[in-house]
Amino acid sequence: MTDDTAPDAEFEREVAKRQMYLLADREARRRLAAADTEDLDLLAAFPTLDEFLAQEDTPSRFRIEGLWPSGGAKIMCAAQAKTGKTTLNMNLIRSLADGDAFLDSFEVHERAQRIVVMDNEMNEDMLRYWIRLQKIRNTSAVAGVAALRDKPRLLDLGNDRVREFWVHRLRDLGCDLLIFDCLKPALDVMGLDENHEIGKFLAPFSQLLADAGIGDVIVYHHMGHNNERARGDSTLVGWTDANLKLIRDQMNPEDRYFSAPDVRGAQQPVGEGLLSFNPATQRLSYAGGDRIQTHEDGVVEDRATRILEVLAEAVADAKNDTNTLNRTALYRAVGGKDETTKKALDILIDTRKQVIRESVGRALLYKLAPKANDPTDMGAEPYTLPAPMPSPAAGRAS
After folding, report:
1. CB 237 within 8 A of CB 230
2. Which end of the chain is more exposed for a tag (fewer CB within 10 A), N or C?
3. Cβ proximity of 393 and 277 under 8 Å
4. In sequence order, what are the beta bridge partners of 180?
């Protein structure tokens, strides 16, 4: 063989290799198609309505009551920046592994057996620290923990080799529930625009889940800074079976609120509720009460304090022998909306018994209750302003 023929021989060898690869690929596709046909044969017989209704229902329609549908579900949790997404996620992992009620309010009907965590925001030391804080008892329920912050190539699910790696890895681990935190780094690695191209991530991601046999997954995604919806196009919302939200109160930045406005099969959505946080246990609790109610409660409480101050001043006023104020004088001195003042008065009169309301003819008169006003009254205590109500959020989640 001369030197002139050597390049041709090398070329032919490469062609033969490529041909073998293509033939193997064609055979693999043929076998997959045959397997799919076998699956279709299993679906050929449909029950009658009587047979269908005679079948027993599943024990529960929810893995987590009101939040996570049974039978395999895709969940998205959208969170504003710095709202405690990591703490929420760690609470979820503990509840799924140990069976504790999620957020102390939502019963876990089906514990996960082989959870895999794919976290692309924290390095190994950070992730280990946060998981350790939860003191998970059933640690064997978490089959794998992947800290991917420093391994961006493993997030390129559009790459067939990377996706096949995860399919085999997750299948070998027996993963039955995947936690993917969070979406944005994966989009960046794949060069996708979150405003228009989330679907280009969901297609290979869904293929990964199907090939690995994973029915349950939760994907965390960030909200924009100035709104309360997940960033990007609406494709992600349509892909999910349940959409959860974690938001920060702009008026009271220490307060976080959790809700589930859209859950497949739920009779009614889980309304926005304030989260309380126990720093000692790192546990979150869903306390209920949305931001509007919380703000209103705070305004009413402030108004109640102001009413007591005004009535105390009436007691100290030497010119006021009766220690009372009529409705007009009280409302004028307190200020603000009359509706709020009325709510505060109702609480002070009917619930706390700190104010007395008297009717004199057509006039309504208000004064402090004796035990708050007259230290000489039997059992009375000197009047002091009540301490402000503590915020239901006992701490701040990170």
Report:
1. yes
2. N
3. yes
4. 118, 219
Cis ω for the linkage preceding 77 (within 30 of 0): no
Centre a 10 Å sphere on the Cβ of residue 237 and count the other Cβ atoms it contains: 16
| DSSP letter for each residue of 42-53 | HTS----HHHHH
Question: Which pLDDT score is estimated for 77?
Answer: 96
Q: Smallest Cα–Cα separation from 162: which of 219, 116, 208, 114? A: 208
* Largest separation between any pair of C-alpha atoms in the chain: 125
Sequence-ordered list of residues with C-beta below 8 angstroms from that of 97, at least 6 positions apart, any chain: 111, 112, 115, 136, 137, 138, 139, 141, 142
**Please, what is the angle between helix 291-316 and helix 338-346, to 10°?**
80
Q: List beta partners, residue 181.
A: 119, 220
C-beta of residue 304 within 8 angstroms of C-beta of residue 347: yes
State the DSSP code for 153.
G
Q: Are 212 and 175 in contact (CB under 8 A)?
A: yes
DSSP conformation letters of 313-366: HHHH-TT-TT--EEHHHHHHHH-S-HHHHHHHHHIIIIIS--EEEEEETTEEEE
- CA angle at residue 119 from 219 to 265, to 5 degrees? 20
For β-strands 242-248 and 256-263, DSSP reports them as antiparallel
Nearest in space to 101 (alpha carbons), one of 148, 53, 71, 63: 63
Cβ partners under 8 Å of residue 387, min gap 6: none
Q: What are the strands of the beta sheet with 355-360, ordered from one edge?
A: 325-326, 363-368, 355-360
| Dihedral-angle region of residue 231 (phi above 0 means left; psi in -120 to 50 means alpha; beta otherwise) | beta
Tell me, yes or no, if the pTM score tops 0.70: no
Task: Give SS3 for 220.
Answer: strand
Beta strand pairing status for 363-368 and 355-360? antiparallel
377: confidence class by pLDDT, cuts 50, 70, 90: very low
Higher pLDDT, 374 or 378: 374
Query: What average pLDDT does the segment 246-269 reach?
Result: 88
pLDDT digits (tens, 9 = 90+) for 150-182: 999 999 999 999 999 999 999 999 999 999 999
CA pair distance 397, 86, nearest whole angstrom: 8
CB atoms closer than 10 angstroms to residue 147: 18
